[in-house]
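Please predict the structure of the following assembly.
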Amino acid sequence: MSKNINVALIGNPNTGKTSVFNQLTGLKQKVGNYPGITVEKKEGICKLPRGVKAHILDLPGTYSLNTTSLDESLVVELLLNKNDKDYPDVAVVISDVENLKRNLFLFTQIKDLKIPTILVINMADRMSRKGISLDIEAMEKKLDTKIALVSTRKRQGIDRVKELIADHKNLSSAPNVDAKRISPEYFERLQKTFPNEDLYKLWLVITQDVNFMPIEKKRIEDATSFATKSKEELKKLQHKETVLRYQFINNTLKETYKVDFQAAKGLRGSLDRILTHKIFGYLIFFVILLTIFQAIFDWSSYPMDFIDEQFAMASEWIKNTLPPGVFTDLLSEGIIAGIGGIVIFIPQIAFLFLFISLLEESGYMSRVVFLMDRLMRPFGLSGKSIVPLISGTACAIPAVMATRTIENWKERLITILVTPFTTCSARLPVYLILIALVIPKGTILGLSFQALTLMLLYLIGFGMAIFSAMVLNKILKIKSRSLFMVEMPTYRLPLLKNVAYTVLEKTKSFVFGAGKIILAISIVLWFLGSNGYSEDFKNAEQIVNDRIEQEGLSTYSKNYIQNNIDAYRENALAEGIAPEVIQDSIQSMTHYLRERAEAQEIASYKLEHSYIGRAGKAFEPVVKPLGYDWKIGIAVLTSFAAREVFVGTLATIYSVGSDEEETIKTRMAAELDSSGRPLFNLASGISLMLFYAFAMQCMSTLAIVKRETNSWKWPLFQLGFMSVFAYLVALIAYQILI
Amino acid sequence: METLQHILVYLILALAVAFLVYKFLLPKSLIHGSKKNSKDCGQDNCGCG
């Protein structure tokens, strides 16, 4: 008969809990050689031998059961509450073979809660390289448990873990360290007051900093027959507990764990000295950043152009193949243009995540965190804030959630408020298209201006996050600061499978997550741009034709025709075509181009008087001082749902009524302002990039900030502050550069 | 044919608007009702509970 059991995977950060979880359940949760990836519990199901079905929980990493932060308290909350539906029948403590001594501290604490506990020693593949040998049998006896030696990288030992979990009934639940030894007299009184409670559980409830079980704690404090101790006295007893545990662990490892330092090989020490050096460390990081941004531009330009052309061709094909009508227009001008606005960025997004994933997998990211901690302390940010800020380069949502590792509330709040300044992947499409349009293609010392601009934008975002933290730190007056400890994981060759999976998943979630929103917005925008209520819209053809008859074509149209003719003449003469043939061709070409220009003027007039044109024109005075026209204004407005909507919106607006096969870039490059200059020039381009660098344009992030702060006050403050700041910076930049 | 094209456009437009309302305007609690404990499904011999 099948039996359901609860299994909790617990361990220090970066010991490979999620890798074990993935291999037990067959799921694919994100893993990395980087501490703090799991901040929420994750669950999965696994069928085990003898018909046992296990409900497996992957819990956030913690160094001990004396918790200080929200993510760690999740673990203790579960282990102390027998009534919790997820209370484990068996705890599986995942440890790292190189840090067994420190990992066993948590193991002994869990074992002392009298929960049947299995010890998994992970990363066994590193043993021979590090000269480590283990006497598993002796260790099992000393720890009074069962041990599985596992290598998740090589997929070894997981069957043994499954066997041990299925046999959990044979596990001993006797404690490793007798809690009474901490203070016999104190624990005696505690036991007398609460005869039915487990002693070590009571002790943990009394000593927790996180007030996660107020009723239980209050019950203990209110017990008249039991006088609790002062905070200082309790701290002393906790120190005594630590000493007792390490005595037990040392005794265990003395006979069962050996390291032959002569056999150990590794570059870790010397690599760390260079990579975290106070000068070379930053230089190396700077060079790595430059390489990444250069690669994003250089490597992805070909696939980007290819995709752009394919979408332009697809749009043209639909127009020519399907019967003419509104639905055909919606497909070619709304849907295809909108989707093209996001798919075009797949190569860049994939390259960005490829590099981030390589840095995480190799263990280098933790060194970056260490470097940044040193750099940022003077600005009032704690080292613990660095992890969210760095992970914010991918997406602000998990980054805001990652602030749960920060125990000090005000410090956590500041980190939540400034994290959206770091350049997330949604800003990348906006930057890339604008840089390509307004920054010249030249190079300096072999580095392209465009790549340098992109890097500068990333640094501006990061700098703004630090600056805002400094200001908020002064306003909110933080007195205490978190203690920062970062796990320096071993350097590893990145696993191709993990890297490929991360790149695929992140790109997929970018395309599908943002893609659905962009598609929906593109459809609505196309509709609003193709319909209108005014007489001007309805009689557009008549009005424009009358105007052309009286005043002739607009300057833009005249230039358009002349430029095309000039280009044709130049090419024809270069090819040696006879002048009289050229003249004939020019005559028929002028007629054709004039027809096109007239159609374009009608389309443009209709768009201006459509629903969206009316709305854009009403909004235009707000964005005019920044150098934007009403079309950009609409793109900026829709971007408040999600930044990446910007390119798709412009692509849709510019393609309404257009019957030419054009790429997004050429459409944007052809736009002129009222004085006949390119609309996307250096001044308006820089102004737009700075606006996007600082504005809070992500509804999902606002929702997650609301959830994490449990109030609308902070997300609204964030939205207001960031948007006003972005507007002012964009305004100043445009007015200076124009 | 023209009527059919109009019907299709309005149908797609309604879907797009409904999606945007669902995504950004409806409170999450209203969408999910009582919070369901969603479990991911694995591969091999491991499935959803």
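The helical segments of chain B are 2-25, 28-32. Chain B touches chain A at residues 1-2, 4-6, 8-9, 12-13, 15-17, 19-20, 23-24, 28, 37, 39-49 (CB under 8 Å).
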